[in-house]
Amino acid sequence: GYFLTHGAASALELSSKAAAAGKTFAINLSAPFIPQFFGAQLQPILHHADIVIGNEAEAEAWASANGLPDTKDLPTIAKAIATLPKTNASRPRWVIFTHGSESTVVVSSAAPDSPKIFNVSRLTDSEIVDTNGAGDAFAGGFLGALVSGKSLDECIEVGHALGAMCVKQ
Questions:
Q1: Which residues lie below 8 Å from residue 68, measured CB to CB, with a gap of 6+?
Q2: CB under 8 Å to 142, separation ≥6 — which residues?
Q3: Beta strands, E only, the chain
Q4: C-alpha–C-alpha distance, residues 63 and 66, integer Å
Q5: What are phi and psi of 106, to 5 degrees?
Q6: pLDDT 10s digit of each residue in the chain, 169 long?
């Protein structure tokens, strides 16, 4: 997502070529200001995206910027993104929203009315050192597991494990 602040044309070309070649394209919303102030750059890229990852603040910012009535309903926001037009319809789009120690929500365009909810193992306050980078660690773990051939459930589990490792340091 951060790349949209200065390289939207390159990101759009990359996402378009990935979709045309049948390659999986993932995007991380990165920060609330991306959907809030760079929505015009984000929207065409979402049409090529197979995987969209964000946290609750980024989801809420996208919902607000796109006129959704309930900016706190993560499954509904995920459904709205999952059901956007998609260039490569050969596979569904997954939208994944983390929410700190709360559950992670996954909505697939193949079953948009059936969100999957994944519980997060809570850490104690004394275990948490710094939450910066937890979302990036989750995304890296999720995508690493995905390219290793793991199932969606396993990918989420790995993402949660790496996010937890990150906040403990």
A1: 76, 77, 80
A2: 53, 96, 155, 156, 158, 159
A3: 26-28, 51-55, 94-99, 102-108, 116-118
A4: 5
A5: -125, 130
A6: 777 888 889 999 999 999 999 999 999 999 999 999 999 999 999 999 999 999 999 999 999 999 999 999 999 999 999 999 999 999 999 999 999 889 999 999 999 999 999 998 888 888 888 877 888 999 999 999 999 999 999 999 999 999 988 988 8
> Which tokens go with 28?
């991380």
Q: How far apart are the first and last CA of the chain?
A: 25
Q: Please, which residues bridge with residue 147 across strands?
A: none
Could you tell me how many residues make up the chain?
A: 169
The tokens for 161 are: 């494990």
Active site residue 73: no
Cα(17)–Cα(13) distance, integer angstroms: 6
Tokens 């499954």 appear where?
75
Round to whole Å and give the CA distance between 146 and 158: 10
Task: Return the structure tokens found at 15.
Answer: 């996402």
The catalytic position among 70, 113, 130, 136 is 136
